[in-house]
Specification:
The complex is a heterodimer of chains A (332) and B (293).
Chain A: E1 5-17, E2 29-41, E3 45-49, H1 56-63, E4 71-76, E5 79-80, H2 86-93, E6 96-99, H3 113-123, H4 130-143, H5 160-172, E7 178-182, H6 190-207, E8 210-215, H7 218-224, E9 227-232, E10 235-241, H8 242-247, H9 252-259, H10 266-271, H11 302-306, E11 312-313, E12 319-320, H12 323-326
Parallel strand pairs in A: 3-8, 3-9, 6-7, 7-8
Antiparallel strand pairs in A: 1-2, 1-4, 4-5, 9-10, 10-12, 11-12
Helix pairs in contact in A: 3-4, 3-5
Chain B: H1 15-25, H2 27-44, H3 46-49, H4 81-116, H5 120-134, H6 137-148, H7 152-179, H8 182-189, H9 194-230, H10 242-250, H11 258-285
Helix pairs in contact in B: 1-11, 2-4, 2-11, 4-5, 4-7, 4-9, 4-11, 5-7, 6-7, 7-9, 9-10, 9-11, 10-11
Classes of the chains: A alpha/beta (332), B mainly alpha (293).
Chain lengths: 332, 293
C-alpha cells in the first residue's frame, strides 16, 4: 500500500457550548472530540467504531471542516485546513466529501437526482458544457449501478438503497481523494448493506480513494477496513490493523464491544469469554477524570481514576490507551 | 442491466414544463386560472366590456333594481353597478397583485437573509422588521398619502410595505428549519456558495408555505384597500373600487342589498380564484405530490 499521508490530525478537539438556560444557568461544555491524533494514509480505509454519542460523527464532520475545531490541527494533502477561511476551503471541498447517514434527509426533495448528482460538477466547474455534464452524470450513475435514465426522477421515487447510491454517486462526482462515510449503511437493511459495502469496496479499488468509514456496526467495519480506530467518549482508545483488532483486542472496551457482536454459531457463542460493561456511556458534558472508561471498567485501578492513558504502541502497529493493558494485567 | 438503454438520458425536462403539465391536469387550477384571466381581460378592456360609462350619473334613476337596461341596477348616484364592478377590477387586480408582490419579494429576501445569516445581519433585519410592524398600516398609509397624496400607487406601496414584515417572519422561520437539513449541509460540504444554497436550495423548499401566505394575502390586500378607501386615503372617488362600493352600499343594505352583495361577490370570486390557483400551484411545484390526483 502507498504509504503517503493524506490527512494528518493532531490533538483535534471539538467542544460545543450548551445553551444557558432561561434562569441564567451556566453554559456547559460538551467534549465531543478530545485530543484525537490520527494519520490517514492515502488509499487506506479507516474504520471508526464506537457507541452512539461517542463523537464519531462530530469527528467525521470536524475533519472535513464542517465545524470549526476548538483545538488541534488538521492537515489535508499537505495544507493546514484548521483555520482556513471558508472561501479558500471551498476549493478543497471537492477533494474531501462526506456521505450522510440518512439518505432520506441528504437529498434535496425538490431537485431531480440527476441534478443533485451533477451539482458538484457545476459548483467546482468540472464540466465545460451540457453534453459533458450529462455524460458525466450518466457515468456516475453507472458506477453505482443505477440506470442513468433514472436521472430525471425525484428522490421520493427511490428506495433507501437507491437513494444512498445516489448520495454516493454525488460524492464521487468531484473526484474526491477522501470520503467520510458516516453510518452510510446503517439506515439500510442487512442484505442491502452488504451490497452497498461491496459496491464501495469495488469503487475504491477502481478509483483509488481513501475511505473513513464511521459505524457502530463492527461486522460492517471489519469487512471493509484496513485499520480501525475505537472511539470512546471523544477519544481514540485503540487503533490497529483490522484483523489484529478482532483477533487480539487490547482495550477492555474493545473486548466488550466485540463480545456484543453475535456469532451465528451457538457452540462458539457459548465458548467465548464475555466482558460485561456496567452502566451507560458517561455524559460528555462532564467527562470522568483520568481514563474516560474507568467508571465502567472491571480492571480500573487508582491510576486510571486520576491520569488519562496515552496511546502506546504494543507492537504490530497496535496502539492502545489503557494502563491495565499496557501493564499486562488484562486476562487474555 | 444487460440490455440497458443506450440512449443518453434527457436530464432536463425543464422544471417549468413539468409544473405546467401538472397544473393543467388539475381541473380546479384551469378553472381558477380562467377566472383570473377573465378578470384581467375585463380590467384591460373595461372600456369595451362595460355597458355604460362608470362615471355617468343619472339622478333620475337612482338605486334602480336590476333590469335589462341595468343588469345589476344603479347606485345612489344612478351609476351602472355592473360597469363600476368591471372598472373596479382594475384597481382590485393592481392592489391584489402588485402590493402582494412588493411585500412578498422584499419580505422573502429579507427573511432569507435574516434566516441564513443569523448573527449580525439577521438581528439587524429582524429589528428593522419589528419597527415596521409596530407602525399600524393605517398610519403608514396616512403618512405616505400625506407625503405624496392619495391614489392607487400610494396605497399599493402602503399595503405592500405593511405586509412585508409578515413575509419576512414566515420566510425566516422556514429558512431556519430548512437550513438544518442534511441536504443543505451536503451542499456546503460540496463547496456550494451561500448564494447558491440560499436561492437554489433553501428558497424552493420554502415555497409551500410562501404560496399559501401569498394567496391568502391577496384577499386581505383587496379588503385593506377597501378600508383605506373608506378613510379617503385610498382610491379617491369617483374612481370605482370594489371596496368602496361595498362600503357605500352598506348604508342601504336593508333596502338595496345588491349594491353591497354584487361587489362583495366579485371580491369573493377573485380571492377564491387566487386561493385555489395558489393551492394547485403549490401542489404542482412539489415533485412529491405533483402527479397525484
Amino acid at each position: 500500500m502507498d504509504q503517503q499521508i493524506i490527512m494528518k490530525i493532531d490533538d483535534l478537539r471539538m467542544y460545543f457550548n450548551t445553551n444557558g438556560g432561561v434562569f441564567g444557568n451556566k453554559r456547559k461544555i460538551v467534549h465531543a472530540v478530545d485530543d484525537v491524533s490520527l494519520s490517514i494514509m492515502e488509499g487506506e480505509t479507516i474504520g471508526i467504531v464506537g457507541e452512539s454519542g461517542c463523537g464519531k460523527t462530530t469527528f467525521g464532520r470536524a475533519i472535513l471542516r464542517l465545524y470549526k475545531p476548538t483545538g488541534g490541527s488538521i492537515e489535508f494533502m499537505g495544507q493546514n485546513i484548521t483555520d482556513m477561511p471558508e472561501r479558500k476551503l471551498r476549493q478543497l471541498r471537492s477533494k474531501m466529501v462526506y456521505v450522510f447517514q440518512d439518505p432520506y434527509e441528504s437529498l434535496d426533495p425538490r431537485k431531480t437526482v440527476g441534478s443533485t448528482v451533477g451539482e458538484p460538477l457545476i459548483i467546482n466547474h468540472l464540466v465545460r458544457n451540457k453534453k459533458e455534464y450529462e455524460k458525466r452524470i450518466a457515468e456516475l450513475f453507472e458506477i453505482v449501478n443505477l440506470d442513468p435514465s433514472m436521472a430525471n426522477r425525484y428522490p421520493h421515487e427511490f428506495s433507501g438503497g437507491q437513494r444512498q447510491r445516489v448520495a454516493i454517486a454525488r460524492s464521487l462526482a468531484s473526484d474526491p481523494k477522501l470520503i467520510v462515510f458516516d453510518e452510510a449503511v446503517s439506515a439500510l437493511d442487512v442484505s442491502l448493506q452488504a451490497r452497498i459495502v461491496n459496491l464501495l469496496a469495488d469503487i475504491k479499488e477502481r478509483l483509488k480513494i481513501t475511505y473513513i468509514f464511521i459505524s457502530h456496526d463492527l461486522s460492517v467495519v471489519k469487512h471493509i477496513s484496513d485499520r480501525i480506530a475505537v472511539f470512546y467518549l471523544g477519544r481514540v482508545v485503540e487503533l490497529s490493523e483490522a484483523d489484529e483488532l478482532y483477533k487480539n483486542p487490547l482495550h477492555p472496551y474493545t473486548k466488550a464491544l466485540l463480545t456484543a457482536v453475535p456469532i451465528p454459531d451457538p457452540f462458539l457463542e457459548d465458548k467465548r469469554d464475555v466482558i460485561f460493561m456496567d452502566g451507560e456511556i458517561p455524559s460528555p458534558i462532564n467527562p470522568p477524570k483520568g481514563c474516560p472508561f474507568h467508571p465502567r471498567c472491571p480492571f480500573a485501578t487508582d491510576i486510571c481514576r486520576t491520569d488519562a492513558p496515552q496511546l502506546v504502541d504494543m507492537g504490530h502497529q497496535h496502539l492502545v490507551a489503557c494502563y491495565a493493558s499496557q501493564e499486562g494485567r488484562l486476562p487474555k | 442491466m444487460a440490455n440497458r438503454n443506450k440512449k443518453q438520458p434527457i436530464l432536463h425536462i425543464s422544471e417549468s414544463r413539468r409544473v405546467f403539465k401538472a397544473l393543467f391536469k388539475r381541473k380546479i387550477a384551469v378553472i381558477s386560472a380562467a377566472v383570473i384571466l377573465l378578470t384581467i381581460i375585463c380590467a384591460v378592456f373595461a372600456k369595451w366590456v362595460a355597458p355604460y360609462d362608470p362615471y355617468t350619473m343619472d339622478l333620475t334613476n337612482i338605486k334602480a333594481v336590476p333590469s335589462w337596461e341595468h343588469l345589476l341596477g344603479t347606485d345612489a348616484l344612478g351609476r351602472d353597478v355592473l360597469s363600476r364592478i368591471i372598472y373596479g377590477s382594475q384597481s382590485a387586480l393592481v392592489v391584489a397583485i402588485v402590493s402582494v408582490l412588493i411585500a412578498a419579494i422584499s419580505g422573502i429576501i429579507l427573511g432569507l437573509l435574516a434566516g441564513y445569516f443569523t448573527k449580525v445581519v439577521g438581528v439587524i433585519i429582524m429589528r428593522f422588521v419589528d419597527t415596521l410592524q409596530s407602525i399600524p398600516m393605517t398610519v403608514l398609509a396616512l403618512a405616505i398619502a400625506g407625503l405624496s397624496g392619495g391614489g392607487l400607487v400610494n396605497i399599493v406601496i402602503a399595503i405592500g410595505v405593511s405586509l412585508t414584515s409578515l413575509y419576512a417572519r414566515v420566510m425566516r422561520g422556514q429558512v431556519l428549519k430548512v437550513k438544518q437539513s442534511d441536504y443543505i449541509l451536503a451542499e456546503k460540504m460540496h463547496g456550494a456558495g451561500n448564494f447558491r444554497i440560499m436561492f437554489l436550495h433553501i428558497l424552493p423548499n420554502c415555497i409551500p408555505v410562501l404560496i399559501v401566505t401569498i394567496t391568502m394575502q391577496m384577499g386581505s390586500a383587496i379588503l385593506m384597500e377597501a378600508g383605506l378607501s373608506f378613510l379617503g386615503i385610498g382610491i379617491t372617488p369617483p374612481t370605482p373600487s370594489w371596496g368602496s362600493m361595498v362600503q357605500d352600499g352598506a348604508a342601504v343594505l336593508t333596502t338595496r342589498p345588491l349594491l353591497t352583495i354584487a361587489p362583495g361577490i366579485a371580491i369573493f370570486i377573485l380571492v377564491y380564484a387566487f386561493n385555489t390557483f395558489g393551492d394547485a400551484l403549490r401542489d404542482a411545484l412539489d415533485p412529491r405530490i405533483r402527479n397525484r390526483k
